[in-house]
Design goal:
It is a single chain. This protein is of the alpha+beta class and 125 residues long. It is built from three helices and five strands. Helices cover 38% and strands 25% of the residues. Strand 2 and strand 3 form a beta hairpin. Helix 1 crosses helix 2 and helix 1 crosses helix 3. The protein is globular.
Length: 125
């Protein structure tokens, strides 16, 4: 799976749980979330993610994406499951970041080991 396919799959999964305000635009690298599991997110949060950053986030310590890791029996379905597990873990991290964010920290960024809610002026360039 390439970076764009992974990103599209991630946005699709996120769209099942959250209302995505607008369509993520190419190059913009942000997605606005206005609700999660039917509950409003107030104020809405902006998730900063692009295909390349998402790929970096789900890669292992050696830079290998879950879909590129060899399985013991080279089972493509097992590789797909590893990729799906990584993306599901990311969705849980996003939910947690939304639930514990402090006032004024309405931007979600991918960091080592998870997702962090930060103020607009703390979003990495």
């Amino acid at each position: 799976m390439d970076d764009q396919e992974r990103y599209d799959r991630f946005l699709s999964a996120l769209g099942f749980r959250a209302n995505l305000d607008g369509t993520p635009s190419e190059g913009r690298g942000t997605v606005d979330l206005t609700d999660l599991d039917g509950e409003p997110v107030d104020p809405a949060v902006r998730l900063h993610v692009c295909p390349q950053r998402l790929a970096q986030h789900v890669c292992d310590d050696h830079g290998v994406a879950p879909s590129a890791r060899p399985s013991l029996d080279d089972d493509p379905e097992a590789l797909d499951e590893a990729e799906a597990a990584s993306l599901q873990s990311l969705l849980a991290q996003i939910e947690e970041a939304i639930l514990v964010r402090e006032p004024g920290k309405d931007h979600l960024v991918l960091v080592d080991g998870g997702v962090r809610a930060v103020a607009a002026d703390q979003v990495p360039a």
